[in-house]
Amino acid sequence: MAARWAPPAGLLLLLLALVLAPARADRPERGGRPLPPPGPEPEASSAVFPLYGDVYPHGLYYVAMSIGNPPRPYFLDVDTGSDLTWLQCDAPCVSCSKVPHPLYRPTKNKLVPCLDQLCASLHGGMNKKHKCESGQQQCDYEIRYADQGSSIGVLVNDSFALRLANASIVRPSLAFGCGYDQQVGSSNEVAPTDGVLGLGSGSISLLSQLKQHGITKNVVGHCLSSKGGGFLFFGDDLVPYSRATWAPMARSAFRNYYSPGSASLYFGSRSLGVRPMEVVFDSGSSFTYFAAQPYQALVTALKGDLSKTLKEVSDPSLPLCWKGKKPFKSVLDVKKEFKSLVLSFSNGKKALMEIPPENYLIVTKYGNACLGILNGSEVGLRDLNILGDITMQDRMVIYDNERGQIGWIRAPCDRIPKFGSSLL
Known about the structure:
Elements: E1 15-18, E2 47-54, E3 60-67, E4 72-79, E5 86-88, H1 117-124, E6 140-145, E7 150-163, E8 169-170, E9 173-183, E10 195-198, H2 206-212, E11 219-224, E12 230-234, E13 245-248, E14 261-267, E15 270-271, E16 277-281, E17 288-290, H3 292-305, E18 311-313, E19 321-323, E20 341-345, E21 351-355, E22 361-363, E23 369-371, E24 373-375, E25 384-387, H4 389-392, E26 395-400, E27 405-410
Parallel strand pairs: 4-10, 5-9, 16-25, 17-24
Antiparallel strand pairs: 1-6, 2-3, 2-12, 3-4, 3-7, 5-10, 6-7, 7-8, 7-9, 11-12, 11-26, 13-27, 14-15, 14-16, 14-20, 18-19, 19-23, 20-21, 22-23, 26-27
């Protein structure tokens, strides 16, 4: 649910906590002049961005964002599993990875003060009492991940250059993290990204801030191509409301993640007989993770259903792999040997998600077919089940915070859409 910088490809760095300087409740100051009545809201537009990367071998999808004045490009790992966008930065840097672009350098006038409402929102994610010792105090934070990685930084404001569907270019000033002390991955290798694009539903996320500015609606979607690349969009102009499968967003017991609630798991048409699984959609995870019980049930079903032409083999890429009579070149060579999985979501109307073999298998450089669903209990996820990039490939996934729903539909994700045209 955050950036993955260290090999092997596809590490999951689950966001554990935000340990922050104290913050106040989310409310405006009392006193002062009364606010004027609100004028008419500007019409919200949309923005679309090309994506880069893949599930294998790179293990992430990322977007280029132009930040600062003058605007400079930065590569950000697209993460719907966390709220805060942040860059590695020279503030000065205590510990940073090597990154694709020169480190972002903030100026003092860009610091977000501790008293700012966005600082209070960021800290409020852990429901901690927050005190600001002075009006000049900066907004500090610390993010910790399940693999013991962490990032310490300070909240800053700077402009993001966005080209909208209505042909205008806007440069709103948005708050994001300036991370100056990272303990993530190897500092000797060049990281694929400069930071993380947090697209969760919290008020500190860029999506919520763009909504506050009246620039886009609080809707985000992505389309990850199995061929590599894809596209990301803010706003609802591209959303196929009448054709997509929709499920109401459920409040996750595991923090404020995007979840359509609990689902029953089927192997082909057969129920695997496991208790309903709480499912989270997370573009910050390369692979899919099942809790121990559904994972073991799935592995047992897969092994019991395979033809004798496939033999289990050791492969450094993933824990469970098979080889054929000759090396596989793509999942298409082996998909006929595997059944589709189905998730049946019980939240509201019964919404089904079919997961064909190409959405849970990869073919490695060694020519083996490997299971891209991992045992989440081995990485500290307990009962949480995460649908990662591998399972979301070749479908548009929409997180509609305006209507409180998550949608999905098969789509040609290697074609970046033009507004006003039909993608599907």
